[in-house]
Amino acid sequence: MKGLITLEELMMLGLGLYLFSVLDFAWWWFPLLILAPDLGMLGYLLGDRIGAHTYNLFHHKGVAIAIYLTGAYFSIPLCQLVGTILFSHAALDRALGYGLKYEKGFKYTHLGQIGKNNE
After folding, report:
1. Which uninterrupted H or E stretch holds 72?
2. CA-to-CA distance for 113 and 98, rounded, in angstroms?
3. What's the pTM?
4. For residue 119, is it within any domain?
5. What is the separation, in whole angstroms, between the first and last Cα of the chain?
């Protein structure tokens, strides 16, 4: 099952790359920005509860899709770029086994505990 989920997330990353390719931004913006959503981890400086909420906000695919669709509807390419980067980053993280965080600590995710074999 883990392999199937990884494949699904890699396909979503591919979708993100495609969505980026139809935007009018230079190619180098994608690798430059792909790790930007990890700024959401800064919330952990204020504790596990706030950290989990800020991390999850920056890594929630629904938020990414809403931002992208808002940009598409109102013809705001920057919103489309932000949504694409958030979506692609979340897919990459999930493919690597990093999930949305629980409030009890950074290593506790919806995909299992980071560092543990969760097959």
Report:
1. helix 61-73
2. 9
3. 0.91
4. no
5. 7
